[in-house]
Design goal:
Blueprint: H1 4-11, H2 15-23, H3 30-43, H4 49-56, E1 61-65, H5 73-87, E2 91-95, H6 101-113, E3 118-121, H7 128-136, E4 141-144, E5 160-164, H8 167-179, E6 185-189, H9 195-210, E7 220-222, H10 227-238, E8 246-249, H11 252-264, E9 274-278, E10 292-295, H12 298-314, E11 322-325, E12 328-330, H13 360-363
Parallel strand pairs: 1-2, 1-3, 3-4, 4-5, 5-11, 6-7, 6-8, 8-9, 9-10
Antiparallel strand pairs: 10-12
Length: about 375
């Protein structure tokens, strides 16, 4: 097995120069750097990451704590994190906290014990212990998808955050359904405590107000961000004496649950109930009808989280940043629009295929009272 000394002899440089090239610890002339890299390639040299970490106090690894196994939404975010990490020469250690505060604290501790340089975490609904641990051990960290209110003490670490816009796109979905003539629009909301849940509820209420519709607390039911919860919540809405004629589901898992509840009752979309969902997913256009949805920029969220973390590692004392990314409207036909939908728009504001709300008379044909 080739050693660093072998690389140095082949390139005609010192071992220290090879170390500077491989670790980026000091500028090296371009032709010298290329000679070292050519020698590394020719000899098949593999750096000793453990030895390098002992010298630099860096492992060039990032800990990622997201519920990628139990929540498919995070799978695409994970891909963005992985691509961003590899681009900058970092490896990933991945743990699934299952959105459970106790398990979250444990997996973050385990990642920290493996000496990751920093962490990217999708916080649970009760992140107090998470924040306390990261603060106590001064772990560089970025929160993604869900925003956490962290008090800014003078000597406390700064936590950067990255997420998609939540309120305005939800307002747009409600406005779109209201423009189709619906007056009873239900919301299957996520788990209480998540910032995403709060924002989408805010957007829902703003959408009702903008359309001149009253807020009815019976039309908002929490589905706990899971398919089973979405099914229960939809069943509860359908059991109302006057059920909704349109529904907004606040994530992809709850959309699946809502569709199950409708199927079990023999109800169709959009004939019996118009449906719009927050989160687009790979097979949404395979449903009949295709699902009208808000698509989050998942890979960009993951990639941006990596960049924020690397910026934090380079400048630990810089001000904390919260980055919000715009969503796209993916217009299909589950909302009740019959025409061929237009291409997605990069906007949180939604309209019908013509760019304007549909006429009320046409919309009334889509509005039915469920049995």
């Amino acid at each position: 097995m080739a050693t660093m000394a072998d690389v140095a002899r082949s390139a005609g440089v010192s071992v220290a120069t090879v170390s500077h090239v491989l670790n980026g610890t000091r500028p090296v002339l371009p032709h010298t750097r290329q000679a070292v890299l050519d020698a590394v390639e020719e000899l098949g040299y593999t750096p000793n990451t453990l030895a390098r970490s002992l010298v630099t106090s860096r492992t060039r690894s990032i800990g990622l704590a997201v519920s990628a196994i139990s929540n498919p939404y995070f799978t695409e975010i994970l891909q963005g994190v992985e691509a961003g990490a590899l681009e900058h020469g970092y490896g990933l250690l991945i743990a699934d906290p299952h959105d459970d505060p106790g398990h979250e604290r444990e997996v973050v501790r385990l990642l920290h014990e493996r000496r990751v340089d920093g962490m990217i975490v999708a916080p649970s609904a009760e992140p107090r212990d998470l924040v306390a641990y990261l603060t106590r051990h001064r772990v560089p960290a970025v929160f993604l998808d869900r925003v956490v209110d962290v008090p800014e003490a003078e000597d406390a670490p700064r936590f950067d955050q990255v997420c998609a816009e939540g309120a305005e796109p939800t307002t747009g979905l409600v406005g779109h359904l209201a423009g189709l003539g619906h007056r009873r629009i239900g919301l299957v909301a996520g788990r209480p405590g998540f910032s995403t849940t709060r924002e989408r509820i805010t957007g829902y209420r703003h959408g009702l107000a903008a359309a001149g519709l009253p807020y009815d607390e019976r039309l908002l039911v929490h589905g706990d961000s899971e398919a089973a919860g979405g099914e229960r919540a939809t069943a509860q809405l359908l059991s109302l004496a006057v059920p909704p004629t349109a529904l907004v589901t606040a994530n992809n898992a709850m959309t699946i649950g809502a569709l199950r509840a409708l199927r079990e009752r023999g109800l169709s979309v959009p004939g019996d109930l118009a449906l719009c969902c927050f989160d687009d997913f790979a097979w949404a256009d395979l449903f009949s009808p295709g699902l009208t949805a808000v698509a989050q920029p998942c890979r960009e969220i993951g990639a941006r989280a990596v960049r924020l973390l690397l910026d934090r590692l380079a400048a630990p004392d810089r001000p904390a940043r919260t980055v919000r990314l715009p969503c796209s409207f993916v217009h299909r036909t589950s909302c009740g629009c019959a025409e061929q939908p237009r291409l997605p728009e990069r906007s949180g504001r939604l309209a019908g295929p013509s760019g304007e709300p549909r006429a009320q008379a046409h919309a009334k044909a889509n509005e039915r009272t469920l049995p």
